[in-house]
Amino acid sequence: MNKKVIAVSLLMLSFFTVSYAGEDMNRGSKLYEKKDFKGAIENFQKAQVKKPTDPMINYNLASAYYKAGDFDKALESYDTALNNTQDINFKSAILYNMGNCAYRKGDNDLSLQYYKSSLKLNSKDVQAKHNIEFLQSDKNKNKDNKKDNKDNKDKNKNKNKDDKDQKQQEQQKEQDKKDKQEQKKDQYLLDYFDKQDKQNQNKQQNATAVSNKRNSKPW
């Protein structure tokens, strides 16, 4: 058994012939063996109408749904079979297959629960043991990856914050420099205009003095 992948082959029971559930069950079994799963489903459904809660019919119907890729309906039919049998080995096989369905649906946690329940009823089930080990190992690996991703995310977040703070500091320094330059420029202009104003005042005073002197009467 390949230890690198999960074992998702169905635990199959022998299909039942005419003596068990009539022609519908017999045709369904033959179509299933020919991999005509759609045709098998149709015939198993007909047999189910006659015996809705029959665990064997529901089991075979669920297996046909599984092969057809309809895992939701497969789980429903497996569940019906599970709730209508007291056979421990049969229950274990059903739970194993339900684990396969959940795994195919991408729900690894639910799949793990089904496999564990199956193994409790049949401790010698090697495939169930393998799948449990695989899922637990995969779960731990995902936890480690999530932790690493979170740590990296936090590092990047802190780095981005530091970069942002540094950028803001540099922008503030640049702005302060510009403000000082503007202030220096403004002060220069104020000094210049103030100097010009004083010069103008002096010129005006001198002009007035000269004018007064010219207009003053001699003694």
Describe this protein's structure:
The chain is mainly alpha-helical. The chain has a domain at 18-141: Serine Threonine Protein Phosphatase 5, Tetratricopeptide repeat (Alpha Horseshoe). It has 7 helices and no strands. Helix 2 (37-50) packs antiparallel against helix 3, helix 3 (55-68) runs antiparallel to helix 4 (71-82) and helix 5 runs antiparallel to helix 6 (108-121). The longest helix is centred in the last third of the chain and has 90 residues, at 126-215. The radius of gyration is 45 Å and the shape is elongated.
Structure at a glance:
The chain is mainly α and 219 residues long. The protein starts with 17 loop residues before the first helix and ends with a helix.
What would the CATH topology of one domain be? Serine Threonine Protein Phosphatase 5, Tetratricopeptide repeat
CATH architecture of one domain: Alpha Horseshoe
What is the SS-derived class?
Answer: mainly alpha
Q: Roughly what percent helix?
A: over 70%
Under CATH at level 1, the class of one domain stands as Mainly Alpha
For this structure, what is the CATH homologous superfamily of one domain? Answer: Tetratricopeptide repeat domain
- What is the average per-residue confidence, as pLDDT, rounded to a whole number? 80
With helices defined by DSSP (H or I, 4 residues minimum), what is the helix count? Answer: 7
Using only C-alpha atoms, the radius of gyration works out to: 45 Å
Low-pLDDT windows of residues: 14-19
Order of helices and strands: HHHHHHH
Terminal CA distance reads 137 Å
Q: What shape does the CA trace take?
A: elongated
| Largest sheet: number of strands, sense, barrel closure | none
